[in-house]
Each structure stands twice: as C-alpha cells, then as structure tokens.
Design goal:
The termini are far apart. This protein is α+β, with helices and mostly antiparallel strands and 544 residues long. It is built from 16 helices and 19 strands. A hairpin with a 2-residue loop joins strand 12 and strand 13.
C-alpha cells in the first residue's frame, strides 16, 4: 500500500499567531496582573504617584488610576480589557478606578492558582458569578442611609485624601458639596456635566472658588463694550449675526459708485435691524454660538451691550440651565421671555487670558468650579481630585447609601463570603473562597502602601471584624485599627458595588478565553502584528 502523507491544512493567513489552552490563559492573566500591579502602589492616602512621559515629552504626574492607564497607551489585548474596567468605573462614578483594577488583578491571580490545581475555568467562572451576586447582596445590607451635609463633606474629603489636593481638602470639599447641591434635580439625580470644572494656573489652591453661574474662556468683542454688566439680561443666540451669503454663485454687476454704496448701506441697515431686534427685548448681554459681523459689533457696542461670539454648544446649554434663558436660532422669534438673568456679567483676566464670568444667577442648575494651583501639574492633579469628589458626592445622593472606607467593607465582605463558601459543596466552593480572599487585597494594599507590617495589621483587622466591628478599618497614619465611620472616612456604596461587579465580569471574561488568534493585519510592533514581547509579553511600559 502506498505511503500516504497527510497534507497540513492552513486556515489562517501567513504571519498569524495563535496561542491556545493553558498558555493562552496564563499569558492573558499575566498581562492583567501586570496592569493591576502598575496602579496598585497608588491606592490609599499613602499611595505614591506615577510620572508618565508621552512621545512628545509631555509629563503627567498623578495617582489617579484611570489617568495612569489611559496615558500608558497599553497595547496587549487582555490588558486593554482591564483598562476598560477603570474607564467604566470612571464613567459611572468618577472614583474607585484603582480599587476596581486591583480587585480584577487579584481575582485573576487567585483563579490562576485554581487553574494550576486543574479546576476547570468554567467552574471558576460559575463560582465567581455566584460570589459576585452574593457580594452585591452583602454590600447592600452593609450600606447605611446618611446623606446629610456633614457626611457629604466627609465623602468629598475621603475622595481627595492621598491626592495632590489633600492639603486643601477642607476648602475643596466644601466647594464640591455646594456645587452638587446646587445642580441636584428631581429624585436626587445629579448630571455631573452641569458642574463645569475650569482650571487656571496661578494663585494657590485656596483661591479656588464656586461661581453661581458659568465661566467661559471668551472675551468681549470690543473694548467699547462695558467690562461689567450688572443685573444682566442674557440672550443666547444659535445663529450668526451676519449677512448670509447666497448658497449659489451669483454675480452682480455694479456700474456706478452709488450702486456700490447702496449695497453697503443696505447691508449696514440689515445688521442694524438685527441689533435693534435683539436690544428691543431688553437684552444687555448677547452670547452667540456663531459669528458676529464687525459692523454688528459696532452697533452692539454703541447700545452698551456686552457680546461674545463662537461660544461652544456645551457652554450654551450650561448657560441656559444657569440663567434660565432659552437658546434661540431665529432672531424674529426672540422675545423678552427668552432672556436669562444673572447678577453680574464681567470680563476678568486670569493669568494671561481674558474670561467672561456669568455670576450670581438665581437658583442656577449649572455652576462652575474654578480650580487654581501654583503649577500646571498641580492644577491638573487637583482637577482630577475635585472631579472624583464631585462624582462621589453625586453617587451618594443618588442612591442614598454610604459605607465607611479604609478597607472596612472589603474585610467585612471577605469574611461574609468565606462563611458563604463554607455553606456550598462542589468545586464552586473553591472559586467562592478565592473570590473572598481576593477582597482582602484592598486592606492589605493600604497597609503595604503605608509601610506597615501586613501580617500583624491584617491579623488585628480580622480580629476586630470577628468581634462584629463592621467599620473597623486601617488608620494608615498611626498603623492601628480604627472605626472608619467615626473617623469620617466615608464613601458612597456605589463605588464598592460597581468595582466588585466590573472586576468580577472582566475576570470571568479573561478566564473563559482559551484561544488567542492574532491576525497578521493587526496593529502592533512585533512580526505579524503581535504586541511587543509577543502574546505573553508585557504591554509597553509595564516594567514600571
């Protein structure tokens, strides 16, 4: 019988790379753990900062989890999935990004140990889902209803502790709480977009202020216009105050200078009529989203009107909410009822730039937090801290439930999930235990970042929780166990529920991948489009 050789069949294009089975899982987990390790040292009041230098040489100094991960420009596909966890946390609450990423990394690390013991990934995934569901139930039981002003201020201060804004957290926390309380709507809903955070380098953090209105980076159109307008009547116009050009090409033959002058006079008359129409409503401030003709600027200045052009659409919407004005896109329809009100409209110089301040609005539903700082890096970090504080206060108001911080809820969760695991039978019990152990990574990281002894301090913390002290947390400054609630370390419950949910989801997703196919057309630095370092390599910059 003829010796038959089996011809290999290629189903992927040349240059493609494929990693299957245990190796694929190991590589994916390794990349995810590397991301978590990168941000882990930034967690807590004693967390350190990262300096990230981009390809243009621009420097970012921060300990904000999502900022670090976005600036790092990570390429590994599994590592990108962990970055998505941070982005989701940022979009939903605005804070807790580092917690979510560290939890995801620890869940995958514990899952790897189970994989080494030949526990099937599907069993681990099922156990993790059961544990996550139980964790949500436990957290909701832990949450306490407390959203008075003192608690809200403590939430804002907790969000800023450990960041660049820490030394002025009292001032900034007060501003953040006031800002959120001003824009809160029905059912305690807060649209964070209605709080405009403007940052300006120069002055100190203590110079930061809350403006009952909107600040826009535009100056008045003419020095002949008033610099300050009291008792402002504001018109918001979403159309150009110019003569529209014909949409088709048209030629007009002019034979005499009089005809030319006639055209110019007619154009001037039309612009004057537009200005008359605006000022007849009583408007003394005009904010235009589009262009304003130079002739129209002259007439507005003569009427003593403060005018600004090319205001962004988002600022126009905020202005409408702050002043009560209606945005009008047809001048013929503009009436007195469409105008908004503000106590003062003023042009102010901040640093080298001129800004328009629309201030002292009555019951504004959009406000501006003006953040000041000594240098650009400081101001940027303070802005990130204030954004976190605003997000936390808004989340606390929305759900009405808060928990103590300092690692207390995670420790309570770990012990409750361990008890739950003991009530189960089958291999899922191992996965639930692994999930419970992963929760301990938050208090342990807080301890390690503070330079404390992790074994002794964790033992003390567990002992306190065994004695039913549910808010026992780590005082990173004294190294002792404290009652986090009494110390004013308070966070919205939503941070914890979202972090646990996102971390569990991404861990399950990564675990279920047993085949990575990288096509030759993919972007990347390696041959065949593989990320630098191959599928098992670290993402760029992961050696930090």
């Amino acid at each position: 019988m003829a010796n038959q050789t089996v011809q290999p069949i290629f189903i992927l294009p040349e240059g493609s790379q494929r990693t299957v089975g245990r190796e694929a899982q190991r590589n994916n987990i390794m990349a995810a753990k590397a991301v978590a390790e990168t941000v882990r040292t930034t967690l807590g009041p004693k967390g350190m900062d990262k300096m990230i230098v981009d390809s243009l040489g621009d420097v970012t100094v921060t300990n904000d989890g999502v900022t670090i991960l976005e600036e790092m420009n990570i390429e590994h596909p599994s590592a990108k999935m962990i970055v998505e966890v941070a982005k989701t946390q940022e979009d939903e609450i605005g804070d807790g990004t580092t917690t979510a990423v560290v939890l995801a990394g620890e869940l995958l690390k514990n899952a790897e140990e189970l994989l080494d013991k030949d526990v099937h990934p599907a069993v681990i995934a099922r156990g993790y889902r059961m544990a996550e569901s139980k964790a949500q139930e436990i957290l909701n039981q832990l949450g306490e209803r407390a959203t008075n002003e003192t608690v809200l201020k403590q939430i804002a201060q907790t969000a800023m502790t450990g960041k660049g804004a820490e030394y002025s957290k009292d001032t900034l926390a007060t501003l953040a709480v006031k800002a959120v309380q001003m824009v809160v709507e029905e059912n305690n809903h807060v649209d964070k977009d209605n709080i405009k955070i403007e940052k300006r380098t120069g002055g100190s953090v203590e110079d930061s202020e809350l403006i009952k209105g909107i600040v826009i980076d535009k100056e008045r159109l003419s020095p002949g216009m008033p610099r300050v307008v009291k008792d402002a009547k504001i018109a918001l116009i979403d159309r150009e105050i110019e003569i529209k050009k014909p949409e088709i090409d048209a030629n007009i033959q002019i034979k005499t200078p009089d005809q030319m002058q006639g055209f110019l006079d007619q154009e001037e008359k039309m612009l004057q009529d537009m200005v008359e129409k605006i000022t007849s409503t009583g408007a003394n401030v005009v904010l235009c989203q589009k262009g304003v003709d130079d002739v129209a600027i002259h007439f507005l200045a003569k009427k003593g009107v403060y005018a600004v052009r090319r205001v962004s659409e988002s600022d126009m919407k905020k202005m409408a909410k702050a002043t009560g004005a209606k945005i009008v896109n047809n001048l013929k329809d503009l009436s007195k009822d469409d105008l908004g009100n503000a106590g003062t409209v003023e042009e102010k110089k901040v640093g080298d730039e001129e800004f328009t301040y629309i201030m002292d609005c009555k019951n504004p539903k959009a406000v501006t937090l003006l953040i000041r700082g000594g240098t650009e890096h400081v101001t940027n970090e303070i802005e990130r801290a204030v954004t976190d504080a605003v997000g936390d206060v808004a989340a606390a108001l929305k759900t009405g439930l808060v928990v103590a911080g300092a690692g207390a809820p995670e420790m309570e969760l770990a012990m409750a999930l361990t008890r739950y695991a003991n009530s189960l039978s089958g291999r899922e019990q191992l996965a639930v235990e692994a999930f419970a152990n992963a929760m301990e990574v938050i208090p342990r990281t807080l301890i390690e970042n503070a330079g404390l002894d992790p074994i002794d301090t964790m033992t003390d913390l567990k002992a306190a929780h065994t004695k039913k002290q549910k808010w026992a947390g780590i005082d990173v400054f004294s190294g002792k166990v404290m009652d986090a609630w009494k110390k004013g370390v308070i966070e919205p419950l939503k941070i914890k529920t979202q972090a646990v949910s996102s971390a569990a989801e991404v861990a399950v997703m990564v675990l279920r991948i047993d085949d990575v196919i990288q096509s030759s057309g993919s972007k990347g630095g390696g041959e065949g489009g593989t990320p630098p370092g191959g599928m098992g390599g670290m993402p760029p910059g992961m050696g930090m």
